[in-house]
Amino acid sequence: MSGKSAGKKLRLGVLASHGGSNLQAIIDNCEAGNIAAEVCCVISNNKNAKALERARRHNIPAHHVCRAQFNSDEELDQGIVDVLKRHQVDIVCLAGYMKKIGQKMIARYRHCILNIHPALLPRFGGSEMYGRRVHEAVLKSGERESGPTVHVVDEVYDHGRILAQKKVPVMPNDTPETLAERVLKEEHKIYAETIDKIARGEIELGE
Ligand code: GRF
């Protein structure tokens, strides 16, 4: 996927399970004109996700799509793809989405699904590395730096091409919470910046 053609905004579909502060940062940057993109739909597996509420507040279609609504994992996978297609989404942004992405979605949006991870991949990634655990592992390792990674999603957890990283210091007295807060602040900037670079063709995602 190359940069947008003149005047055409990149259409984003965001998947989020909980708070959605990254979603909010993306919406705010789109609305402020800092990113040549618009959030066209938000999907959550969790009907109580604050992310859905945030979307509604901005008049963005908010969809609760979960396994219980379908007969199989494959149908759920297709159900999510159907919503994204209906909104003519170009790029899928995972922002704290706690479910594994299905094969159909990866095939349909190959190279065009992004994720943000709260540590410097390839370290501190994988299926068990989410939320507080990531920051606990960083602190335990004695690393002096951490920070967010934006990467392309493929079949393997936290594995696809790294598009951007930002280092922040790990302080001697950090707790998982204080480190998470420092990293999250940078997540909000780097996710928006990376999407903007894609929108402007500065980062090419490939066909
Ligand atoms: C972020 O830390 C992100 O790196 C991870 O999930 C968290 C989501 O936070 N993938 P929020 O819902 O965007 O506030």
Which structural traits does this protein have?
6 helices, alpha/beta, 207 residues, single chain, 7-stranded mixed beta sheet, binds 5-O-phosphono-beta-D-ribofuranosylamine
Task: Give the topology, please.
Elements: E1 10-15, H1 21-31, E2 37-44, H2 50-57, E3 62-64, H3 73-86, E4 91-94, H4 103-108, E5 113-117, H5 132-141, E6 145-146, E7 149-152, E8 162-165, E9 168-169, H6 176-199
Parallel strand pairs: 1-2, 1-4, 2-3, 4-5
Antiparallel strand pairs: 5-7, 6-9, 7-8
Bound molecules: 5-O-phosphono-beta-D-ribofuranosylamine.
Strand content: 15-25%
Strand order of the largest sheet: 3-2-1-4-5-7-8
Number of H- or I-type helical stretches: 6
Q: Any low-confidence stretches, pLDDT <50, length ≥5? A: none
State the major sheet: 7 strands, mixed
Mind telling me the C-alpha Rg?
A: 16 Å
String of helices and strands: EHEHEHEHEHEEEEH
Task: Outline the structure in words.
The protein is built from six helices and nine strands. The strands form two sheets. A seven-stranded mixed β-sheet has the order 3-2-1-4-5-7-8, with helices on both faces. Helix 1 (about 20-30) runs parallel beside helix 6 and helix 5 crosses helix 6. The protein has about 210 residues and is of the alpha/beta class. The protein is globular and about 50 Å long. Bound molecules: 5-O-phosphono-beta-D-ribofuranosylamine (GRF). 5-O-phosphono-beta-D-ribofuranosylamine binds next to helix 1, strand 5 and helix 6.
Nutshell version of this structure?
It is built from six helices and nine strands, in the order βαβαβαβαβαββββα. It is α/β, with parallel strands linked by helices and 207 residues long. The site of 5-O-phosphono-beta-D-ribofuranosylamine has 13 residues, from helix 1, strand 5 and helix 6.
